[in-house]
Amino acid sequence: MTINWFPGHMHKARKEIAKVMDEIDAVIEVLDARLPLSSENPLVNSLRKGKPVLKILNKSDLADPVKTAQWLEYFNSQENIQAISLDQAQKKLIAGIPDMCKRMVPGRASKERPVRVMIMGIPNVGKSTLINALLGRKIAKVGNEPAVTKNQQRYTLKNGMALSDTPGFLWPKIEDQESGYRLAASGAIRDTAIEYELVALFAAQFMLTQYPKQLLERYKLKELPIGSDELLDDIGRKRGGLRPGGVVDRHKASEVLLHDMRAGKLGPITFETVEEWLFKQAEAERLLLEAEAAQLQLEADAAEKARINQNYYENRDNKDDA
């Protein structure tokens, strides 16, 4: 499943961000703590032009705490990046975010000039909720669906920070299949843009493999089913998803599983690990090197063929002259 979902307002947002980035001192990028790299928009790195970034692993109360700690270590080891985990109940930590941003750009903020920060992130990672918490009042529109914020907004905080909000936007084509499924399962992509049952089957298999006990507890199963199809059938039977004749309504069962997952009712889960992504990056580099080597070999073979042809025609011409 390759997802192509880039509404017009997202394309507009990318252009507006590029236009005003020179005025920005630092970036806050809000990520989903359950899928830190899958929810990291690759366009942000190019748009921020090397400016310091505070990566906030939001919804950390929904994520596996052990894996969140590993992700924080991964991000904090990188240059010009600071990372924290956050859930909206951590009021004291939220109140300290402006000071974190100021420390990232020493000399840029003063009494006369607030530090200028742009907050970015893909849809439905809790960006607007965080802005409201920073401002101490409800200004940014909040919704449980992606793409609620449509236009760029600017706010001035009392604690010396000017905050620019941007619409949540994805990149034009999500090529990594697993990332696409994770984003869909987390709610970052509108349900109308995905094949609902396929995403639920992915989520079911993930839970069976990684968090089986949480499935047993949530759906009061006596034993684990052998596969994702069987799990959806069990959920459908348990949660009123039966059609006449005892046939399971797969769409209904899919809704139950995905809604429970998104709401944290299956317990804290994390879809991806640092180790997995490091392996993916190493594999991508290996394939790139192989492709470059193959291209060099093609060019060398072509050059050798051209040399042989040239020698052939030169020898033939010499024989004709003789």
Summarize this, please?
This protein has 322 residues and is an alpha/beta fold. The protein has helices at residues 8-20, 42-47, 65-76, 91-95, 97-104, 127-135, 177-186, 196-210, 212-219, 228-238, 250-262, 274-321; strands at residues 26-32, 53-58, 81-85, 115-120, 153-157, 161-165, 242-243, 247-248.
The termini sit apart by: 67 Å
Radius of gyration in whole Å, from Cα? 26 Å
Approximate strand percentage: 5-15%
The parts where pLDDT drops under 50 for at least 5 residues are 142-150
Q: Given the structure, what is the number of helices?
A: 12
Percent helix, as a range, is 40-55%
Task: Give the SSE string.
Answer: HEHEHEHHEHEEHHHHEEHH
Mean pLDDT: 84
Instruction: Please state how the strands of the largest beta sheet are arranged side by side.
Output: 3-2-1-4-6-5
- Number of β-strand runs: 8
Query: Which structural class should the secondary elements be placed in?
Result: alpha/beta
Largest sheet: 6 strands, mixed
Assign an overall shape. Answer: flat
